[in-house]
Amino acid sequence: MSHNTFGYLFRVTTWGESHGPALGAVIDGCPPGLRFTLDDLQSFMDKRKPGQSRFVTQRREDDIVKVLSGVMPQDDGSMITTGTPVSLMIENTDQRSKDYGDIAKRYRPGHADFTYDVKYGIRDYRGGGRSSARETAARVAAGALARLVIPGVTIRGALVQIGKHKINRANWNWAQVEQNPFFAPDAEIVPVWEDYLDGIRKAGSSVGAVIEVVAEGVPAGIGAPVYGKLDQDIASLLMSINAVKGVEIGNGFGSAEITGEENADEMRIGPDGRPVFLSNNAGGILGGISTGEPIVARFAIKPTSSILTERRSIDADGQEVDVRTKGRHDPCVGIRAVPVGEAMLACAIADHYLRDRGQTGRLK
């Protein structure tokens, strides 16, 4: 299987399967001299790990990240990157492969079972193997390092919609995101989502979601105008996350509903003599290049395909079958996709930051 690597200068290769002994990432191109502690990485891993509320899968994984190479330990317990490949590993400790024995030859609707079998002639039915969302743990670890590459940048994500229930943007408060199990920026939506997801979970069903990720403090001028657009690469990395079926930047699809006068981000000169944008419909990117405004992206997550309700399908022998997926699954996988989206946005910006530094020399 090829195509396990993304990025150009900040280059990440992930490896491992859902029910293997471990998974991880190798980061090539991480600059030397970045200082961090294991806690710096673990804090992001803890946001993504399963089993933290009744609204996510009850698989119990500590998701402890280990750094195997590319760093020099320091006396104070921190470590500094050396510029050589950084290898990160997360051990799997709570696999239940037997839960998947009944579907060893059956294709689960909505999953990659059929397409993997068609392409490779073999598939890992134990939780989906490489196609499992478990792989995203490695991305979150890589994203934690990517944040260190881009000084002064803050990257945050929030869940803004579950099913048909959307947040009230007038209530947006970043401090609320860490205060509830949904990463919701609107305190009033939390009880609504709790009641709604309790019903979905008890029915053995699932539902989709929309996540918004925002990067503030990104310098103007990174990206390239034709085949190296910053928004192009952000969209590509967000689209690569499991279960993502749509991505938009800034006003996105909403821009199709308004006029040019409404959509144009007008400009004036600020008190410090620098340009000021009066709106940010472009999501911080124009012509593939950052404007200095916050970069805003949203992505849609489909309902978790693993559900208890029987669905019609076929098996590897060409027989028509009904499939019910056992095991521990997220009723809304979009909840734990929030830190994954943050990580992929961080990796895209870090890669473009290094590209711009190498090409123009203006960033330090």
Automatic annotation (TrEMBL):
Pathway: Metabolic intermediate biosynthesis; chorismate biosynthesis; chorismate from D-erythrose 4-phosphate and phosphoenolpyruvate: step 7/7. Its cofactor is FMNH2. The gene is aroC. Reduced FMN (FMNH(2)). CDD domains: Chorismate_synthase. Keywords: Amino-acid biosynthesis, Aromatic amino acid biosynthesis, FAD, Flavoprotein, FMN, Lyase, NADP. The lineage of its organism: Bacteria, Pseudomonadati, Pseudomonadota, Alphaproteobacteria, Hyphomicrobiales. Homotetramer. PROSITE patterns: CHORISMATE_SYNTHASE_1 (PS00787), CHORISMATE_SYNTHASE_2 (PS00788), CHORISMATE_SYNTHASE_3 (PS00789). NADP(+) binds at R48, R54. InterPro entries: Chorismate_synth, Chorismate_synth_AroC_sf, Chorismate_synthase_CS. One of its GO terms (cellular component) is cytosol. Gene3D superfamilies: Chorismate synthase AroC. This is Chorismate synthase. GO terms for biological process: amino acid biosynthetic process; aromatic amino acid family biosynthetic process; chorismate biosynthetic process. FMN binds at R130, S131, S132, N242, A243, G287, K302, P303, T304, S305, S306, R328. It comes from the Bacteria.
